[in-house]
Each structure stands twice: as structure tokens, then as C-alpha cells.
Here is the input.
Amino acid sequence: MTTGLFDGYDPESFFDEAVAADGSPRPHYEALVRRLGGFSPVQLAERERIRDAAFRQAGITFTVYGEGEGVERTFPMDLVPRLIPAEEWDHIEAGLIQRVTALNRFLDDLYVGDQAAVNDGIIPRWLLTSSDGFQREAFGIAVPHAARCLVAGIDIVRDAEGTYRVLEDNLRNPSGVSYVLENRAAMTRVLPRVFGDHLVRPVDHYGPSLLNALRRVSPPGADPEPTVVVLTPGVFNSAYFEHAFLARQMGVELVEGRDLVVDDHVVSMRTTHGLKRVDVIYRRIDDAFLDPVVFRSDSMLGVPGLMSAARAGNVTIANAVGNGVADDKAVYAYVPELIRYYLGAEPILASVPTYLLWDQEQRDHVLDRLDELVVKPVAESGGYGMLIGPAATDGEIEAMRRRIEADPRSYIAQEVVQLSRHPTLVDDHLEGRHVDLRPFVLSGDKVEVIPGGLTRVALRKGSLVVNSSQGGGSKDTWVLAEGEPGP
Here is the structure.
């Protein structure tokens, strides 16, 4: 039985991360339930105020678009952390290492290799070349150690049976890791005794690990300590806080396109002492805006000549140009086969059953079940453009039907996953809210998964949309060290 704060908490019919169906805490949550049960609503409200003040002072904000011209908010972090026992994390970690390894091999094979997976019929060529993320300009541009997705953010959900499943891959500019680190710092300040009750694996080494991974992919002939910069589109970008945060964490310069210049296929940074050569660019700018000579000529965000410098082997762009082809939600359906093809192994982490709508048989099946399925645009992110069939109106379903029939390549459908829920503070009590998990994976000397990741929580009651860009929040994610109680 639970006490105090958890009194009356109802997991309902969902898989709850913290509480079993009979209302008792899961073994690895028992200490947390005991400790939080001793807090009164007034005490927790005071800690929430401390958290908010710390976030405001640090400038930890996120812009929510779609509400007027965009509303900048203090990033919401719930005070009830998510706990993952060591043996569960071992399974997640192994699956992520496997998946990112296969995706790196696929992307390298596609852009600088023999396109073996295409030629052997594992994935259709037309599907790749029709993807919004496919870039012909990336052909022939090698990345040292084939680390094309040097930073990956893989979104994982847990279904009604508690099975971890990969929901989507983010291999271009995955965001959110700054909140992982800041959430941890906030929890250790706001609830130090709660944190101290557990053996939690640290995350504060991310900055040095990222820097080491970036230095590892520096071009041949670079200095032993190559110059790394973070390239941002500027202060008006919704994730600018993270760009500045990561530059500070690594001790490198944060630059905009106007701060860099290319001469004779070499990239240099303007400094007060003159030009300084740049070896690695951790870019947080989309492909289309990187180089106005090659991509959008109307953009002032990028660096003229950058792609020619990369092609000459004088600078490494991380993540690599063209990774978006593997972010395509239609390509997602082929990743299990890509794992089998490149690694000769069965996927460790399950995927979500996915329907490819250019296939007439699958499309007919989906159109008959639109009120039961989730439909997603293949090139969108942030939860935009989705149809969640069980929650949609007749008009929304019919509008989606017309869009699919007009352009079936641009959509996929998936079975609804009843995302696991987690106790979340709502005013002075706890309610279950749906969560997912975005771990961050670095391809450095080895493929490294940062313990935990960003647990995103749908703050609206009943909502399955956890994306920060649509008003979702987050939780600190504690991966428990070996020896902590498990399930």
C-alpha cells in the first residue's frame, strides 16, 4: 500500500512505471514512494517555486509555437523522477547501440559506399531518393570512422505490456540533452535527500564525452587538439539555450554563420586575433540552411563554401549532411531489416507495427481503420500533422483520408501504443500522465549511451503527445546502479 502523497493514486488500466495494478509501488520505487509520501503539498509547492526560479535564472526556456507568435516558457520539469532499474537499462542500452551502429553503417553505405542494402533489395531506392531528408550533395563526402550520426536521439515508448519499443529515430539535430543535465542539477538541489536515497548513474560527463566524440572525427591532418565549434542559427531559435549550454559544457566557441569564412576550401573562425582554422562543426542548423552556394541561396544562416570544404576533407560536419533520410518515418519501417542485413542479428528493441501507405493492400487496410490507428507525416517532427484515430473527429478522419489518397508516400500509419504512464504532480496531488524516453547516443571511440535520457511527459490529461514543442514537460530519469532493487 502507498502512503501520503500517493494515497488514492490510480494506475487505471495502463502500464504504470511506478505503481503495479494492485496499487503497490514497484520494488525499485519503494524508497521513492516512502520519501515523497512524507512531503505535504505545501512543501512540494515550495520546491516547485525553487525549481522555477533556478530555471528562470539559468534561462532554461523553450518556445511553444502555434500559440500566437510563439510563447517562451520556463521548461516544465515534474518533481517525481522516473526510475529505471539496472537490468532494464542494460536491455535498452544494448538495443540502442545495435540500432545506431546499423544506422551509421546504412548511411555510410548509402552516401560513400556501394549502396549494398539498396542493390540487395533490402530497401527500395525510390523510397530513399524521394525522402525529404535525402541529399544528393552528400554523395562522396566521407565522415571519419563512418560516424555519420555522431549524436542520435532515439525515442522509446513502453506499451501496455511494459515492452520497450522504438518509436522513431532522430539523427539530424536531436535536441533535449541540455534538459537532461539541468533536470539532474535541479533535482539534486531541490530534493537532495530523495536523490541521496538512490544509487543513480551520473549524466554530467556528457559535455566531455561529446567533445571527445567530435574531436575523434576531425579531418586527417588536423591538430592533436582540433578546433571544434557549435554552429547555431541564432538567439531566435527555439533550442538556442541548448546550443549555448553545450558550447559552455565543452568549452568551445558558439558561432553563427557570419562568424565563419571559407577560403581555399578551408573553414576559419573570425576572432579578435584574426582567423583561426576550424576542424569540426557541431551544427545545429538544418541541411537546407548550411551553405547558400549549394542549398538555399536566400539563407543568411549558413556558410558559403562549407560543403566544398567538407568535400575536400578539410572540415567535418556533425551530424553529417543527409542523415534526414534515415529520420523518414517510412524508412523507420525498414530498420529491423537493416539491423539484420548489416549486423546479422535480430533487433534487440522492438518497433511499433507500421503500415506503408504507398502499398495498395496496406493503404486499403489503413483507410478502413483510420479511427483505430495513428497516422503520421513521414517528414514532420514534434508531433505535428498527426492523426490519433481514437481521439479524432469524423471531419479530421475524412480530411486525413483525402490527404493519404492524394499523396500516400508522405504518410505512414501505426497501431496505437498505449504509452506507459507515470505519477505526475498536478496541483496538490498525483495523477498518471503518459511518458516516453529519448536517450542520447554518442558514436565516439565506442557507441556510448548516456544513462537515462529525457523522459518527456504529456502534461494534458489523457494526451499521448509528449513533445516539448506542443507543451509537454519532462522528468529527471534515474538509471539505478547495480545493486539497487529491481522489478
The first helix runs from residue 30 to 37. The chain has a mean pLDDT of 92. The two ends are 16 Å apart (CA to CA).
